[in-house]
Write the structure tokens for this entry.
Amino acid sequence: MRMKMFAAESLEAAKAMIFAEMGDDAIILSEREVPGGVEVRAATDKLGGGMVPSGSGIISRIGAPLTPRLTDNPLRNRVRDALLWHGAPQRFAERVADSGFASDTSVTDPTAAISAGLEKHIICRPIAPRLENDILLVGPPGHGRTAVAAKLTRRASVTKSEVLPVAADLDSTAGGAQLAAYLEREQDQIRSVSTPDALFETLKTIRDNKQRCVIDLPAIVPFDQEDMASLQDLIPVIKAEPVLVISAEGHPEDQADMAKAFARCGIKRAIVTKLDVTRRRGGIVSALSSAGIAFAHLAVTPFIGGGLVPATPNRLAQLLTEDAPAHVALRGAA
């Protein structure tokens, strides 16, 4: 027989965890109330891979006090379960949950616990409104690069600094017209180029005038070797910081593969989009963490004005607290 202790907010929640892991044949051995919830000990005759002994029998027999295990903390398990609900991989959810309580086991707020855990596993580096470098926006098709280019341009104008939008329409998809529409400008007010030579000439003029720009590059398919090779060749020639624009939508493993592919091309920062239409956001957080890419901004509304929020562990934690709406992290958008 194998035994295990389960911790949850309620007896019903604990039983659900027990039967999900041990099966319908599990037997409840004991239950007791603890701060923040209940602890329930259960047993089964099945030797499943997830079964672990509930404690050291030798230590118990000699009378030594048992050290409380982190996995017996109901709030810690709530943090883990919230991340799992959001689609985060099991190992990432466990690591964040453990890290959230590693330095302070007295934490009582789930958001604070998630935030503390994320601080150990992610990097946040927002882009300043007054750009230090030109920005080259890259990303897969349909992830919102052009909208982000417009948002960065609008954000700069609000803070009394100028950022010039450049549509690198190298694939002839009318990117300039779309960018102009987002910014409510005439198309001749947008710097739109259709060839690499025209792009380099435009960038030279902008830099000679000591101005900064945001370049909206055509979509890159991260699983296409030719696309990624072209991007890798282009980045050092353009001499602008490449920033990944990636949607919160999608399968966590696909997101992880995409993030790692762009990281291999030298991308260090990302702007996460479509958080307003995505309920489960754990996959993208884990993906960027595993790829070593820093969070720059979060796009939590479709509107061009006020559409970007500087990324922080606390803002991400608010988005990962179970079924949290995106607007909880909107404060501070620019």
